[in-house]
Amino acid sequence: MAEGKYFLVQLGRASGLSPYLTLSEVAYHCGLHPELIERLVTIGLVDYVEGNVGGEILFPADVIPLLRRIWRLRNHLGVNYAGIGVILELIARIESLENHIRELESSV
Questions:
Q1: What does the buried/exposed string (b/e) look like for 62-75 if buried means 16 or more CB atoms within 10 Å of the residue's CB?
Q2: What's the pLDDT at 12?
Q3: Is the separation of the CB atoms in 21 and 56 below 8 Å?
Q4: Which of 27, 41, 76, 105 is found 20 to 30 A from 20 (Cα to Cα)?
Q5: In the chain, which stretches have pLDDT less than 70?
Q6: In this structure, how many other beta carbons lie within 10 angstroms of the beta carbon of residue 79?
Q7: Beta 20-22 vs 49-53: how paired, if at all?
C-alpha cells in the first residue's frame, strides 16, 4: 500500500480584513452548498457570530476545518448528525484533556 504524504497548511487573512467569513465564502472554501451549512447551523453543529453585516451571518475562520470534519464523518463514515455532535464533543474533550496533560507535564 502506498504511503500518503501530508502537508500542514496554515490559513491566514491579510491584516485589516475581517477575521470572519460570510456564508458564501465558507461554502466556497469548504465546497459545500450554503443551504447545507445553514442546516448544520439550525441543528446546532456549527455556530456563527451574532453580529451580522447586511443581514448575512458571519462565521469565524476556524469553522472551515470543522465543516470539513463534519462532511467526512457524514459522507465517508456514514455517521448521522446526532452521532456527529457526540463525536465532536468527545474530540473537543480529548483535546482539552491532552492540553491539560501537557500543562501538567511542563510544570513538573
A1: ebbebbeebbebbe
A2: 47
A3: no
A4: 76
A5: 1-18, 50-53
A6: 16
A7: unpaired
Can you tell me the distance from the alpha carbon of 88 to that of 48, in angstroms, rounded to the nearest whole number? 16
Instruction: Please give the angle made by the CA atoms of 90, 95 and 99, to the nearest 5 degrees.
Output: 145
* 49: CB partners within 8 A, 6+ apart: 20, 57, 58, 59, 60
CATH number, span 20-107: 1.10.1660.10
Place of cell 469565524: 60
* Amino acid in the structure at residue 96: S
Q: How far apart are alpha carbons 106 and 83 in whole angstroms?
A: 35
pTM for this predicted structure:
0.72
Q: The C-alpha cell of 77 is what?
A: 463514515
Q: What is the helix (H) or strand (E) element at residue 51, kind and residue range?
A: strand 49-53
